[in-house]
Amino acid sequence: MKIVHLSDTHLGYREFHKIDQNTGINQREQDVYDAFKQAVERILEIGPDVVIHAGDLFDTVRPTNRAVNVAFSQFGRLCENDIPTVIIAGNHDTPKIATTGTIMQSLDNFPLVDAVTSDAEQPGGGYRSLRIGEMAVHAVSDASTQQQLQDRLNQLSPDSDARWNIAVLHAGVRQIQDQVYSGEFNEHYISKSLLDNLQMDYVALGHYHKRMKLDIGCCGWYSGGLERFSFNEAAYRPGFLEIELDEDIQVKPVHLKTRRFIRLEEIDASGKSADDLCREIDEELPPEDELEDTMIAISIISIEETVRSLLEEKLFEPLRETVFESRIRLYGPEGEMTGERSLKFKDLHQEFADYLENIDPDQESDPESLLETGQHYLSVALGEEDEV
Fold first, then answer.
1. Which of 118, 143, 246, 301 gives 149 a disulfide partner, CB atoms 3.0 to 4.6 angstroms apart?
2. φ, ψ (nearest 5 deg) of residue 254
3. CATH number of the domain that 120 lies in?
């Protein structure tokens, strides 16, 4: 049997303020839609027995109508081509308050789609075991709390009548959390020992945006994202996994064509002139005619103020006019930041969550309700969802 394993599509994701000239919407939002559509095209070429999406289909709990329409149209294409699809809700798809519900539940109405969520009215309580040919797929949705997720995982057991048992999960793994960048306010973790003891043939994981094989008692992978979402993922090649179940399990990465990210190694400016630094940076960058649509990150330490001013005029200003977006961090001789030029601000949803973590709430306040309400109104203000 052949499986396609993907995750972390984050439909509806937005960044910066640049607009796609063809569609009129945020350019990075369009990049994410284009990557998802490109992935579906490749999936149709592969013709797998099942598609497994390991969570974070949407970027927010209440995605915009546009993001929902893209998801529905693409999953509809898979159904039209008789390809079954199993989707679980990730932490971006799951509200902190279980009674809120999610739009993902509606995908369960597609004839060949099983969308497993935490919605109270859905069967299975966030865990569903599905039989697809010789394969049993054990799909576990993310939950509102760590304990709820653990309770679902405790229900997992292999189907002895199936030739292949596949678990689908969305969570971090504590033993490898230092190897990846995450730090999201509503993420959950599981232990490596739990994965070791699942007695599955393959574990399809979502949450980390970089493709990664896990050293566990069976074959387990994070498929990674279809797009890059930060400069920490600059070296990662976006895509998904094609899995062949035979006498053994063969895993093949399928790469997608997406916007180029370039993150230079940290540059030490000690004793260097602006011209020296210009030459050094130019040697690391591609030719100017290849820079137009790229994302560039540059970090320079021990730079004198006079050199910084000249470098700004000689290199950074022309560079910003050429590239899609830049993140330039400059640190003085004492390690102080002397300038950072980037249009990217920290995500407001994360800022609000961090703020709530660092204040003492009123005794009568419900922290989870306050977080959920605040995130909703932020999404309305940012145009990510409609006010209800």
1. 143
2. -115, 115
3. 3.60.21.10
**pTM for this prediction:** 0.85
What domain range is 278 assigned to? 261-341
Number of H helices, E strands in the chain: 9, 19
114 strand-pairing partners: 86
The answer to whether 233 and 210 have CB atoms below 8 angstroms apart is: yes
Same domain, 310 and 355: no
Q: Which helix (H) or strand (E) holds 372?
A: helix 367-381
Tens digits of residue pLDDT in 340-383: 544 344 456 666 776 776 666 555 566 666 776 777 677 666 55
Rounded Cα distance between 301 and 184, Å, is 28
Average pLDDT over residues 199-213: 95
Q: How many CB atoms lie within 10 A of CB 290?
A: 12
Per-residue confidence (pLDDT) for residue 344, from 0 to 100:
41
Count: domains in the chain: 3
- Check whether residue 249 and residue 363 sit in a common domain: no
pLDDT given at position 96: 73
Q: Distance between CA atoms of 360 and 364, rounded to whole angstroms? A: 11
Q: How far apart are the C-alpha atoms of 187 and 119, rounded to whole Å?
A: 18
The mean predicted confidence, pLDDT, of the chain is 88
Q: Model confidence over 225-249: pLDDT tens digits? A: 999 999 989 999 999 999 999 988 9
Residue 388 lies in a domain: no
- CA dihedral (71, 74, 78, 84) in degrees, to 10, reads -10
Q: Which two tokens stand for residue 281?
A: 């940076």
